[in-house]
Each structure stands twice: as structure tokens, then as C-alpha cells.
Specification:
The longest helix has 25 residues. The chain has one domain: Helix Hairpins. It is an all-alpha fold.
Length: about 60
Amino acid sequence: MIPLPYELLLSAMLFCIGFYGVLARRNGIIVLMSIEIILNASILNFVAFSSYNHDASGQVFALLG
């Protein structure tokens, strides 16, 4: 099992990459891909905290979202 701080660090890095892509790029497709990276970072947070608390609600939300 991966420790929670490593998962949160990965999620923060993904969020920063996506945020940079939204701000720095002018191409619409690239901006949409960057927004998708931001959403994946938030879903990773849900899954990380869900596995840390031994609760399946975050994983269910990730599957439905």
C-alpha cells in the first residue's frame, strides 16, 4: 500500500500540471485535456482518502464521477 502523503503529493503535482496547462495554453483541446488532468487529480484524492480511512465511498464516487 502506498502511503497517503505520496498519493497526495502525486495528486498535487497532477493538479499543478493541469493548472499550468489551463493558464499557459491557448489551444482549446489542450485546455480541455488540462482540465481533465485536474479532475483526475481530484479523483485521486478521493481514492487516496477512501483507502486511508478504509471506506469505499470515495472509490464509489470515483467510479461514478
